[in-house]
Write a structure and sequence with these properties.
single chain, about 150 residues, alpha+beta, about 20% helix, UPF0260 protein MDG893_06304, UCP006173, Puta_zinc/iron-chelating_dom
Length: about 150
Amino acid sequence: MIAEIPFWQRKRLHEMTAKEWESLCDGCGKCCLAKLEDEDTGDVYYTELVCRYMEQETCQCSVYSERLQKVPACTVLTPDTLNDYHWLPYTCAYRTLAEGRALADWHPLRSGDPDTVHEAGVSVRNRVISEADVPEDDWEEHIIHWIL
């Protein structure tokens, strides 16, 4: 018996159902990091500061269904907006598939386990501080380079 080809290998991003699209998120939490943009160069710098609504142990949003009301600038990826987020990390499944690369072995869709992203050290678990604990004027002091 031939195994069915997984949806992420046989469908284009815009052909996926909402459930399939959502399942592409590996739960790393990197899109929830506060980012600073150099207005002159357009370069984006990640900080170790994470949205106040992220549950740091799970890297999940505690207000996911109402996140846009609470954080109007929250990242909302769709097939149509994906290219607007040029700062997505190389490991992001959305970027990975858009660039024609295969999902990593640690991705929950491949491993069947949502913890493999954390076990592989790809997530922000235990590496972040809530943005609520740091005045915005001090954010530059929290720029990180381990995301790359």
